[in-house]
């Protein structure tokens, strides 16, 4: 595809390059260069507690040596089961320093959800949040998770907040309960890793082509699987983000807010790699809390605020309630779900900055497209392919014939951020990576200017609040409930989260239908955003000729039922 075939290049903001340099360095080199260039700049801001880049570099090197002594070697998978906290960033890069592979996990996952992922990736080492450490220790012995390092995130809080947490007050107890848990037997405190000397400079670093991260995703088929991201993939995506904001220079007081979890692909790149490559102040929030965000905003307004529409909406609402001005936020970037044009107008009116929509997938590190930071930005679209990224729309029938502008088809992409494949799933990798092009499973339209818009999905993923939910995973948990004969999970429109998980069930003859009791049991096996908001009983589920449940028909049936009730 030549430049003439990339109409989007003509609509890039001034200074945005068509290509980023080829990546020749690994993630450890990226952070080492930033530590060298900006040693005294604040790297991490955790509810007011600051860590400078030289301190972060020291922690990474000491933790890497500690992990090496525990037996972590090049290519080993190391599971991280952590919320946003300073130790998460240090642990991520310490693992990378050894040439080992990070596997990110949601710390709110149930034991069942964690077990499925550990069975797949086979990590023997885990670095976990102390509050949920027992959950990892309770994994079946045959998984051989024999080394667990525990992190007490309250140790990283400012002294005043630690003191307040121990006051004999209900609010203090509740705050401590949310963040702290006792140290279980058999785990190694994080502080023990930091008690080591720095790792030897002679210890080999990984190559750019080496595997860096396994990021679990529901992919294009709805079955959770591990997307393999190399060092080159992740560094390239950080460079692509840098290229999109050419007027913002490294070390120039950039502030990035990590309201999104960094275990998620979106939060990982914008928090763990882009922010660190910029020498930015990364403001970490253990979970999204609009009051904490507004408090941080008063001290250090965000240069770069990655979010999803529900977070943007809640932040605007809370700022209005508390009469806090949001002026000073330079750039908001929204992804994960469609961004309402009214929300864009409200945000830009209140902040005086931009709010643009972007698009990406775990398989693409994740950022593929962003709207330009000019008046040419096209509200309602996912924007333009970022530097060094090719994209086209192909026929849904043969998956090859390129569609003309304005015609819908499957979006396929290629670029340095496209993943290496799915962990231990060669057949599924071959189905989506063809001749260097990644088939996204999303139905898109490209206009004559090169702006793309997502209009439908081939895959049956449910996207709620920016998180992907595999219908099959929800259905498996529902069918396991007593009295359930069959189930189909679908996503129905929701004004705040994009979609909500709704399950249609067929009960066994004579079995009682108690949706609240069913949801209560599901909470024990599914992380909260996967638990169905509603469970609806049907007499039967529509199927095709070979007996497969037609989720699209189920969705239409449930939507029709809503219309009739309205």
Topology (elements, then pairings):
Blueprint: H1 27-37, E1 42-46, E2 49-52, H2 53-70, E3 77-81, H3 86-97, E4 101-105, H4 111-121, E5 125-129, H5 133-137, E6 147-151, H6 159-165, H7 170-179, E7 188-189, H8 190-194, E8 211-217, E9 225-230, H9 231-244, E10 255-258, H10 265-278, E11 281-284, H11 290-299, E12 304-307, H12 309-322, E13 331-334, H13 341-351, E14 354-360, E15 367-370, E16 384-385, E17 390-394, E18 409-414, E19 421-422, H14 426-432, E20 433-434, E21 437-446, E22 452-457, E23 462-464, E24 467-469, H15 471-479, E25 484-494, E26 498-507, H16 515-522, E27 534-537, H17 551-565
Parallel strand pairs: 1-11, 3-4, 3-5, 4-8, 5-6, 6-7, 10-11, 12-13, 13-14, 26-27
Antiparallel strand pairs: 1-2, 8-9, 9-19, 14-15, 15-16, 17-18, 18-21, 20-21, 21-22, 23-24, 25-26
Summarize the structure.
This protein has 566 residues and is an alpha/beta fold.
Fold and architecture overview:
The chain has 566 residues and is α/β, with parallel strands linked by helices. Among the domains are: 53-206, Rossmann fold; 462-565, ANL, C-terminal domain (GMP Synthetase, Chain A, domain 3), CATH 3.30.300. The protein contains 17 helices and 27 strands. The strands form six sheets. Strands 7-6-5-3-4-8-9-19 form an eight-stranded mixed beta sheet, sandwiched between helices. Helix 12 (309-322) links the parallel strand 12 and strand 13 (331-334). The radius of gyration is 23 Å and the shape is globular. The termini are far apart.
């Amino acid at each position: 595809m030549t430049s003439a075939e990339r109409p989007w290049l003509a609509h890039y903001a001034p200074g945005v390059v068509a290509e980023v340099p080829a990546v020749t360095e690994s993630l450890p080199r990226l952070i080492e260069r930033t530590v060298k260039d900006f040693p005294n700049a604040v790297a991490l801001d955790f509810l007011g507690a600051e860590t400078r880049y030289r301190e972060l570099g020291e922690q990474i090197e000491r933790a890497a040596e500690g992990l090496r002594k525990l037996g972590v070697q090049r290519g080993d998978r190391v599971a991280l089961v952590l919320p946003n906290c300073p130790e998460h960033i240090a642990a991520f890069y310490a693992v990378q320093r050894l040439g080992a592979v990070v596997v990110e996990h949601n710390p709110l996952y149930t034991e069942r959800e964690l077990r499925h992922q550990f069975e797949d990736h086979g990590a023997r080492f885990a670095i976990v949040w102390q509050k949920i450490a027992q959950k990892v220790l309770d994994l079946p012995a045959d998984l051989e998770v024999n080394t667990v390092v525990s992190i007490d995130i309250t140790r990283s809080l400012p002294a005043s907040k630690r003191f307040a947490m121990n006051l004999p007050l209900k609010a203090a107890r509740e705050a401590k309960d949310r963040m702290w848990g006792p140290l279980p037997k058999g785990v190694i405190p994080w502080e023990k890793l930091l008690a080591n000397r720095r790792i030897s400079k002679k210890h080999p670093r990984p190559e750019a082509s080496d595997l860096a991260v396994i990021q679990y995703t529901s992919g294009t088929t709805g079955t959770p699987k591990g997307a393999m991201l190399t060092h080159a993939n992740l560094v390239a995506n950080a460079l692509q983000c840098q290229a999109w904001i050419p007027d913002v220079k490294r070390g120039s007081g950039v502030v990035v807010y990590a309201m999104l979890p960094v275990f998620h692909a979106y939060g990982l790149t914008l928090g763990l790699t882009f922010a660190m490559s910029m020498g930015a102040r990364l403001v970490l929030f253990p979970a999204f809390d609009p009051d904490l965000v507004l408090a941080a905003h008063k001290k250090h307004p965000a240069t770069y605020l990655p979010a999803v529409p529900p977070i943007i909406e809640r932040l605007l609402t809370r700022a209005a309630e508390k009469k806090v001005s949001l002026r000073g936020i330079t750039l908001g970037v929204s992804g994960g779900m469609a961004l309402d044009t009214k929300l864009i107008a409200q945000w830009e009116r209140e902040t005086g900055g931009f709010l643009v929509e972007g698009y990406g997938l775990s398989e693409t590190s994740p950022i593929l497209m962003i709207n330009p930071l000019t008046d040419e930005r096209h509200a309602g679209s996912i924007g333009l392919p970022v530097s060094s990224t090719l994209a086209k729309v192909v026929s849904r029938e043969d998956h090859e014939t390129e569609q003309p502008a304005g015609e819908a088809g499957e979006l396929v992409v290629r670029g340095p951020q496209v993943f290496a494949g799915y962990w231990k799933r060669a057949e599924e990798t071959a189905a989506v990576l063809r001749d260097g092009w990644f088939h996204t499973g999303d139905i898109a339209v490209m206009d004559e200017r090169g702006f793309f818009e997502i209009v439908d999905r081939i895959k049956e993923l449910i996207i709620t609040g920016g998180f992907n939910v595999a219908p099959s995973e929800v259905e498996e948990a529902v069918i396991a409930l007593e009295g359930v004969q069959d189930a189909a999970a679908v996503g129905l429109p929701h004004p705040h989260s994009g979609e909500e998980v709704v399950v249609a069930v067929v009960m066994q003859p004579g079995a009682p239908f108690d949706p609240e009791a069913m949801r209560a049991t599901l909470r024990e096996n599914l992380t909260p955003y996967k638990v169905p908001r509603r469970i609806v009983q049907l007499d039967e589920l529509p199927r095709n000729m070979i007996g497969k449940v037609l989720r699209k028909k189920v969705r239409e049936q449930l939507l029709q039922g809503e219309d009739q009730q309205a």
